[in-house]
Amino acid sequence: PRNAASGISQRLDSKYSQYCTLFAVDLFPNNNDLTTESQKIDLLKKYGFTPVESFLCSDLSKVEKIYQDFLSHKRNSYPYEIDGLVVKINDLNLQNKLGFKNLRPKGQVAYKFPPDTTQTRVLEVNWETGPMGTITPVAKVEPISLSGAII
């Protein structure tokens, strides 16, 4: 589903877009009326968007507990695939003061989940020669489902 949504969103026409749902992850207001991330989420709801699930945490132990909950069971029961969580400082003025480093906001941190893994069987190995004469082994494997894709 995640790979399909990515492909559909990049189409020049709207074919298959009726099968996608938009989940709003952020809002960039034109004014300074909003002072917190919580207010941005409330405004998204008011405008009729479905924002991603959010939690207001007062300390890092609560952040760790939420991460562990997602990792242990909540991630697999979600209606869509997620690869991690984003922790943001609620105070937008403080986020702005912290600024950016390498185009990434310093007031936000992404915590990725470990990648999904599984096992399969190698059915055969073919040797392919590239345009520059490089010989590369290419394995044909028994098809498996991993992260919503058949490999």
TrEMBL record:
InterPro entries: DNAligase_adenylation, NA-bd_OB-fold. Residues 1-115 form the NAD-dependent DNA ligase adenylation domain. GO terms for molecular function: DNA ligase (NAD+) activity. Keywords: Ligase. Gene3D superfamilies: DNA ligase/mRNA capping enzyme, Nucleic acid-binding proteins. Its EC number is 6.5.1.2. It is an enzyme of class 6 (ligase). Pfam families: DNA_ligase_aden. This is DNA ligase. The gene is ligA.
